[in-house]
Design brief:
This protein has 190 residues and is mainly α. The chain has 9 helices and no strands. Helix content is 70%, strand content 0%.
């Protein structure tokens, strides 16, 4: 698993799951102990220090998660189809066509799309770079800025405001990495 995959997987999991989910326990512990900063490949140390300080009260973080994403009427939609023309079925077909196993759960949530980008990086047989670029350009980036802005505006804990800032910077860096990789592949083929 490379840095691209790690960033997508961690951010995807943090947005996809409730802070009280047992799967997140080791990640939350690493954040609280400041150990995730050491492993994070992007220069976002200040944001991770803020994240570290905001995770101390997990009850508040959990309540914020439920208010933002979990209530019957969440403050912020985590689904791409809530932000315009992107259809969940189109994303599902895109992922299935690339061999990704999908469940009955929605494939168009912010976290699920980041996890899909990680899966494409780790498992796609060929043209993974083109698939990742398409995933970012057609299904994630068109609405990510609006989504992250809403998270920042509606979050009551510093955790999700900070996580949104980390995600914003990471998405920019990840897309730039995809562009650099595409240029390298193009130069090699000439």
């Amino acid at each position: 698993m490379n840095e691209f995959s790690i960033v997508c997987r961690l951010l995807g999991t943090l947005f996809q799951r409730s802070p009280n989910d047992p799967i997140l326990a080791p990640i939350i512990k690493m954040i609280a102990e400041g150990k995730l900063t050491q492993l994070w490949p992007l220069e976002q140390d200040e944001l991770f220090n803020t994240l570290k300080n905001s995770v101390k009260d997990l009850t508040t973080v959990e309540a914020d998660y439920q208010s933002l994403f979990g209530n019957k009427v969440p403050a912020v939609s985590i689904y791409a189809h809530g932000y315009g023309e992107i259809k969940e079925d189109d994303i599902r077909q895109f992922l299935v066509a690339r061999g990704m196993p999908v469940s009955e759960s929605a494939t168009d949530s912010f976290g699920a799309l980041l996890l899909a980008a990680s899966w494409l990086e780790d498992n796609s047989a060929q043209d993974e770079l083109l698939a990742q670029i398409q995933l970012f350009d057609e299904y994630l980036l068109p609405w990510a800025g609006i989504f992250l802005g809403k998270v920042e505006a509606h979050a009551t804990s510093g955790f999700y405001r900070t996580l949104a800032g980390i995600a914003r910077g990471a998405l920019s860096a990840l897309r730039e990495e995809l562009s650099d990789d595409a240029e390298s592949e193009e130069a090699e083929s000439e």
